[in-house]
Amino acid sequence: MRSSGVLMPVTALPSPWGVGTMGAQARAFVDFLSDAGVSVWQVLPIVPTSYGDSPYQSFSTFAGNPYLIDLDDLAEEGLLCRDEYAGRDWGSDPARVDYGALYRERFDVLRHAVRRLERDRAGELSSFCDRERAWLDDYALFMAAKDAHGGAPWHAWEDALRFRSPEGLAEAREALADEVRFWRGVQCLFFRQWDRLHDHARSRGVRIMGDLPFYVADDSADVWSHPEQFQLDESLRPREIAGVPPDGFSAIGQLWGNPLFAWDRMKADGYEWWTARIEAQLRLYDILRIDHFRGFDTYFAIPAGAVTAADGHWRRGPGIELFELLEKRMGRCEIVAEDLGYLTDSVRALLAESGFPGMKVLEFAFDTRDGTGSEYLPYRYPTNCVAYVGTHDNDTALGWLESAPLDDAMLAREYLHLDPREGEGWGMMRAIWASAADLAVVQMQDLLGLGSEARINTPSTLGANWQWRALPGFDSPALAARVHRQMELYHRLPDVATGRSPRDVAEKNEEE
């Protein structure tokens, strides 16, 4: 079925409290999408962010980001008093997230809410902790221990805790019991609000597409609690790290720094950790995009301590076997495979065998720096794919037209018949809406006509990423009406009663 989506990080929503949250503005954004005839909201990972503020480098692959907990909703429930958070410094620029201010202020506020949660909703909290015990106990202890060690990575902790001796764990649980309860309570608050938001999206016919990073952070509860699942040495440090080789955008490649998976050991236990990870994600989302899908075929291994990625080499991943086991366990899953970057015939074969839709990025069709060229021209898109103008790792449409090599931008303008009166960004969106792709997703910034100042992330850079926020009123009725008309024109408007597009309805009527 033809459909459309909008990529909008939850953090980028407006709010008076420093960052977008899962509260009233998120529910209003769902309403905007529904009114616009858009049926998919794509979000970035909603996990806790660590150093660098990237949602792709998290303290846990299972936990939720405390910054996304809405304070006003907590106040409405009687879990907060407004004066406990309204007078704090949440940052001076409503168009940017100030992560330093969030780190300084948010957790003190949440402590008030957790105390009331423990007092007034003890049964609900206990049920949540029992249900999520498989990951929650280790995560809560990890965060409590990290705070007790001044934020130091777990590799710097004392040996008894670093190597998880039974005595060391028991001593830490006793000494840090109050903090462990706090971190459990924070997660209960998060998932209560996520469930409310997800239910609201379902009620408005909007499906949420989540995003699962392929790797996990070295300094995470995941690696600390399951070191056997990773390629670590005797001191529990990575032997090699993840990244990607040099390409048209980076002459030295990218050093991601994540530990690599111990695929042989994972295979021996039936990929239990991976299947549990995906299963948990699919309880949160209706559709799951898996980042760096090619890593299941072959992954790039770089010696630990390398200065660049140039000395890395490719190694074989688990292939289709993992997904066959996943399907036996869960049935057919709605997964989108991020198949961008350096692709080989074996990667393409894995994607075809999985049956998952891949991704097509319009900007790549004209960008000679990428080197893939015509593969990304809209007429070549298969039906079973998700089309983008650009992803969160790319510039906005207008930003790309300004920053791309002049000949590339001129070719795009000519090929796509871009017209400043329509809006050149709208012309680029029109190209993917008109394509054969089952799902076409645009960035919210492109709907707003924003340039590079609104770019979400520039890979291989630090300091200014993940900060962009929309200003109040961005999701106006006039914009919803304009988008709705485009969805109608390009047969991406869902039929409310049947969930089918107008074309599907017309074809069914003709058959009858």
Question: Can you summarize this structure?
Answer:
By secondary structure, this protein is α/β, with parallel strands linked by helices.
Write out key terms for the chains shown.
512 residues; 4-stranded antiparallel β-sheet; 20 helices; 12 strands; globular
Which helices and strands appear, and what pairs or packs with what?
Elements: E1 3-7, H1 24-35, E2 40-42, H2 71-76, H3 99-120, H4 122-131, H5 133-148, H6 159-162, H7 166-175, H8 177-203, E3 207-212, H9 221-225, E4 240-244, E5 254-259, H10 263-268, H11 272-284, E6 287-290, E7 298-303, E8 313-316, H12 321-330, E9 335-337, H13 345-354, E10 358-361, H14 362-366, E11 385-388, H15 397-403, H16 406-416, H17 424-433, E12 439-443, H18 444-447, H19 477-489, H20 502-511
Helix pairs in contact: 3-8, 4-5, 5-8, 11-12, 15-16
General description of the model:
The chain is α/β, with parallel strands linked by helices. It is 41% helix and 11% strand. The chain contains 20 helices and 12 strands. The chain has helices at 24-35, 71-76, 99-120, 122-131, 133-148, 159-162, 166-175, 177-203, 221-225, 263-268, 272-284, 321-330, 345-354, 362-366, 397-403, 406-416, 424-433, 444-447, 477-489, 502-511, and strands at 3-7, 40-42, 207-212, 240-244, 254-259, 287-290, 298-303, 313-316, 335-337, 358-361, 385-388, 439-443. The protein starts with a strand and ends with a helix.
